[in-house]
Amino acid sequence: MVTSVLGWRKSSPELPDYPSSSFSRPFHTARAGSSASPSRLAVLCAGLTLPRSPSPRRPSESPIPFVRASQAPCCLVIKPTRGDFLHDYRSSQDLHIGVTDSEGQVYEYDCEGLHNDYTASWTQALAVPIIRDPTAPDRLDAVWKEYWNFSLHTLAEDSAWTSERYSEDSHNCYSFVLAFLQALAPPGLEVKGLTKTSLCARLLLPHGPRGTVHLSVP
């Protein structure tokens, strides 16, 4: 049995039939000889800022919540659109969001289209787990892990996520994450009516204060 972060429980999903090579062929859109650098990932994605903690504790009193995205498999991951949380982030700035697969590779949608070749730049991310196994909180049920990969890799093949379709305001990283959650349909999350605003309010902002403890104390 597994439970979503919203607390409902549900049995592992029935996996659809798919070719055995589905997971052995990674999705990758990096162009040969590309000169892309992490700074080129600094594309604005609309919609989410983290609140300041009203009564911040000293950073030494709370564990640092930021992780390398590669160490947070099967999660939503958030980082500043430009720079990192500890050195560059201000509460008025936009945040960028992606999805990690079971190996910790980040799938993100920006002006270059959907790609998973900048995982190394996600060194200070907030990780948001969507599904947890209450009997083993530190690892995801194997069937759900496989279904997570299947949903993510299938979505990655959709032509909706090209650089030409990208719009900073209306078709951005949050659009991709919403589409992924709708494809995954995790237990306890009503994905049919989920919007960018409710995604932020229900799943992302609850993880904000634990991060901003380290951002609000000089």
Automatic annotation (TrEMBL):
PANTHER family: MKRN2 OPPOSITE STRAND PROTEIN
Source superkingdom: Eukaryota
Protein name: MKRN2 opposite strand protein-like C-terminal domain-containing protein
Positions of region (Disordered): 1-21
Leader sequence segment: none
InterPro entries linked: MKRN2OS-like, MKRN2OS-like_C
Residues covered by the MKRN2 opposite strand protein-like C-terminal domain: 63-207
Organism of derivation: Scylla paramamosain
